[in-house]
Amino acid sequence: MVGQWGKEDDKKVVVRCYNDLRDRIQMECMEKSCEIGNDQTFLFTDTLGDPICRIRNTPLFTMLVAEVGTKLVGCIQGSVKPVKFHDKSVNVGYVLGLRVVPPYRRCGIGSILVRKLEEWFVSRNVDYAYMATEKDNEASLGLFVGTLGYTVFRNPAILVNPVNPSQGLKLPSDIDIRKLEVEEAASWYRTHVAPTTDFFPDDIDEILQNNLSMGTWVAYYNNNDNVRSLAVLSVWNSSKVFKLRIGKAPLSYLLLTKVCNVLGSCLPFLGLTALPDLFTPFGFYFLYGVHGEGPLCGNLVRALCDHVNNMAASDEGGACKVLVVEVNGESNGGGDDSLMRCVPHWKMLSCDDDTWCIKPMKCEGKMTGLGEFNDMLWKLKSRPLFVDPRDV
């Protein structure tokens, strides 16, 4: 695959499939030169020697690289999976990992990579392509929304809570927590979550059976008066896929880390949470399928999160240092809106600037134009969003 780009008197950019033996060393260099962040904070990703680790667990995936001469100057990853969207079963293609090394940016290479990936999506019968970025990432939004015709359709919030390794959190005595069998969990999700959720994966069984899925737990009151309230969530061990490291951080976080850790060790009766060291490589548990029913479900969701905290704290390897949940961040009065209030998280570590964009890959018979597509997205905006752990 060959494309033109904007630098005159230079070689053409060639887009091809990633070759592990040929490209791995250059890929590692590219990742280091394309750190994610802003002037204050940088987030480095250690793929543990596997550049396609973030898409390997999806049913169908690819990585494309852009090459100028013998030099890799860009890459993009994509995965395909079946989901429920707009009350129908469709195939969606996820765009992630778009990278262009700094000297070759603003030359059209990013556009070439996305369009080649979209061609691959179409050849795999994809109905919609979607991607995630930050709402203040002007370059990314300018490319996908301004140039390539994507539409912003969700603004989720990423909630992050540090694992407290010093002591286990005490769970309420009137709440019971039980681990579900895979078949029971899949049936429960299909019955209670799929009908009211967008992007619910048709292959939920495959997710729950994956080696990275640690299990599904349900919480309920052992008092019969509150039997109608319950909550459920599943846990994905991202620590086995890749590690993260913060390169820079606000001074406030550095100072708070020192204070909490010193006071926590000297005055344990204060019950302060010891902040983890996020400046060395760390892993995390991703909590997905978080769902609650009944008037007291918020307390049950919190109990489940505390239960997972105790699981992470007791991990002998100590790889998991934070718990992560992603929910719809818009104040729409729906289930995700209430989840933001009951899921334990530190505002300092969390962010509400995630932005999901989507684009139809096919012309639907009943959709006459982009305006009608946007109207459909607006109507679905209040529905909770199922975040697939394989997309994280």
Automatic annotation (TrEMBL):
Residues 13-164 form the N-acetyltransferase domain. InterPro entries: Acyl_CoA_acyltransferase, GNAT_dom, Plant_NAT. It comes from the Eukaryota. It holds the Pfam family Acetyltransf_1. PROSITE patterns: GNAT. SUPFAM superfamilies: Acyl-CoA N-acyltransferases (Nat). This is N-acetyltransferase domain-containing protein. It comes from Eruca vesicaria subsp. sativa.
